[in-house]
């Protein structure tokens, strides 16, 4: 804050006690619906579930969530397998960009395309990660409520 700049960060959201069976295997995958909701939030620039991008560095035997009588040995899938919740906690991490409103002068152009400098004045948050958390929780709650209703409809048919 003192140097007039901003920073981004990574936030984690964990949805506990989501029953197995929510979501669909192709067009309404639960992770796809959650990802769409999260990426719709203004500063979110990336999302991963479970091991996420770290899975690219794993072998199949390291990444596979082996099931036991007590549940899964790991949660590398982040609680969703094949687009369907598996009963484990759904774990998402989101990359949040730095806020562009900083008090350091920056180059821009005017409405005629001529270069000029701009300095934004006022109070601006140096990091908005803590402000994104309740928004992400609300978006996840909406998606999970929708998944609950879709699952309930299918059970009733």
Automatic annotation (TrEMBL):
Superkingdom of origin organism: Bacteria
GO biological process: amino acid biosynthetic process; aromatic amino acid family biosynthetic process; chorismate biosynthetic process
Keyword NAD: no
Pathway where this protein functions: Metabolic intermediate biosynthesis; chorismate biosynthesis; chorismate from D-erythrose 4-phosphate and phosphoenolpyruvate: step 7/7
Cofactor(s) demanded: FMNH2
Catalytic class of the enzyme: lyase
Recorded coiled-coil stretches: none
Entry keyword set: Amino-acid biosynthesis, Aromatic amino acid biosynthesis, Lyase
EC assignment: 4.2.3.5
GO molecular function: chorismate synthase activity; FMN binding
InterPro entries in UniProt: Chorismate_synth (IPR000453), Chorismate_synth_AroC_sf (IPR035904), Chorismate_synthase_CS (IPR020541)
GO cellular component term, pick one: cytosol
Membership in a protein family: Belongs to the chorismate synthase family.
Alphabetical list of PANTHER family matching this protein: CHORISMATE SYNTHASE
Protein's name in the database: chorismate synthase
Organism encoding this protein: Candidatus Magnetoglobus multicellularis str. Araruama
Gene (name only): aroC
């Amino acid at each position: 804050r003192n140097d007039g700049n901003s920073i981004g960060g990574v936030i984690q959201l964990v949805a506990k006690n989501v029953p197995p069976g929510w979501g669909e295997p192709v067009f309404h995958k639960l992770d796809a619906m959650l990802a769409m909701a999260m990426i719709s939030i203004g500063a979110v620039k990336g999302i991963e579930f479970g091991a996420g991008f770290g899975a690219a560095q794993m072998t199949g035997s390291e990444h596979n969530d082996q099931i036991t009588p007590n549940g899964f040995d790991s949660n590398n899938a982040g609680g969703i397998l094949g687009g369907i919740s598996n009963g484990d906690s759904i774990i998402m991490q989101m990359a949040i960009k730095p806020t562009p409103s900083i008090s350091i002068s920056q180059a821009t152009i005017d409405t005629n395309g001529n270069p000029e400098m701009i300095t934004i004045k006022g109070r601006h948050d140096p990091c908005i990660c803590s402000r994104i958390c309740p928004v992400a929780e609300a978006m996840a709650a909406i998606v999970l409520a929708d998944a609950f209703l879709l699952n309930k409809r299918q059970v009733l048919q």
